[in-house]
Amino acid sequence: MSAPALTTTALHGITPRGPLSDAVIRRLTGGDVDVLGSRTESALAASADVVRDDDIQLALFVLYASSYGSLPDLDPTLEFDAALIATRGLLEQAFEQALRATVPMPGLPEPTVDAVGRALFALAEADTGPSLSRYVAKKATVEQMREFFMQRSIYTLREADPHSWAIPRLSGRAKAALVEIQSDEYGAGRPDRVHATIFARAMRGAGLDDTYGGYVDDVPAITLASLNSMSMFGLNRRLVGAIVGHLAAFEMTSSIPNRLYADGLRRLGFAEDVTDYFDEHVEADAVHEQIAARDLAGGLAEDHPELLPDIMFGASACLTVDGWAAGHMLDSWTRGESSLRSRADR
């Protein structure tokens, strides 16, 4: 019997990138499940690079979207469907193995607040990844900035959500530190200052659609992998150390780049409704980096030394994977090309 044709209309225009993502989309929108297991095995066997595999990363993105509730077309009664959970487990195993094999593992400090804080700041300072923010500040065009917003929308329209999975899994000072950070991310009681909402306003100001998932078809696998790594760390309780380390590195490398992004947007003539998101993060993340490195990551390591290796792995994974995603954009633009997927690939 021939395989069913690929889905083309589900999920607000998000289309499959291969047989596996087709099967996942079909199942999560109420379709058949018979081919899911075989397609999972085939996709993993055929993949030369799980991290940059379009079919695998889109399948993971859609599976995680089911838990976030970020794509309304997905059937909520299938969030814990046994076949889908089995597929997710196999994909996560391969994805985690790929990251652990390629992400540089830093040396482990002593499991104390001060030592972990110093080690994380040293790790961030030693990061030699591509400086997309400096390019944006001085060279990016208006069209490249619109691409930047499209690429960033995959995470930033859901900003903070992946890290919030850790809240019920922590206790004591680490939990208090994470809640303090996340409260700011969610507007500190002001709906109009929720960071995802401010970013949506920036997208509209740049002439773009702020519907979540509206640009999934346009972004490459490595952009999906950046969000998927956060989701995998956050949704798996055994990886709570990794999501804490990820957030620490994320906050510690945010303030200066956001100032440069804002500078670039002003250089190009964008108004305050577009620059507001980036200006907000210059001050907020300068405070968050201290809380995240010391009170959150350092406090967790001091209370649970067995989690220290994953804390450092998560921090390095943040810097590495986000560096790959930024490098893709920067390399494309310096070649005079678009960073988005070509229509031939869709």
Can you give the helix content as a percent range?
A: 55-70%
Q: Would you identify the CATH H-level superfamily of the largest domain?
A: Heme oxygenase-like
Low-confidence stretches at least 5 residues in length (pLDDT < 50)?
1-10
CATH architecture verdict of the largest domain: Up-down Bundle
Residue-averaged pLDDT: 93
Strand-and-helix sequence, N→C?
HHHHHHHHHHHHHHH
What is the fold's blueprint, element by element?
Blueprint: H1 19-28, H2 36-46, H3 54-68, H4 82-102, H5 113-126, H6 132-138, H7 142-156, H8 161-164, H9 172-185, H10 195-205, H11 221-235, H12 240-252, H13 255-267, H14 272-303, H15 308-334
Helix pairs in contact: 1-2, 1-3, 2-4, 3-11, 5-12, 5-14, 6-13, 7-10, 7-11, 9-14, 10-14, 11-12, 11-15, 12-14, 12-15, 13-14
Can you describe this structure in just a few lines?
Helix content is 64%, strand content 0%.
Description:
There is one protein chain. The chain folds into 2 domains: 19-102; 113-345, Heme oxygenase-like (Heme Oxygenase, Chain A, Up-down Bundle), CATH 1.20.910. 64% of the residues lie in helices and 0% in strands. The protein has helices at 19-28, 36-46, 54-68, 82-102, 113-126, 132-138, 142-156, 161-164, 172-185, 195-205, 221-235, 240-252, 255-267, 272-303, 308-334. Helix 5 (113-126) packs across helix 12 (240-252) and helix 6 runs parallel beside helix 13 (255-267). Residues 1-10 have low confidence and may be disordered.
Main features:
Heme Oxygenase, Chain A, disordered N terminus, single chain, 2 domains, 64% helix, globular, mainly alpha, 346 residues, 15 helices
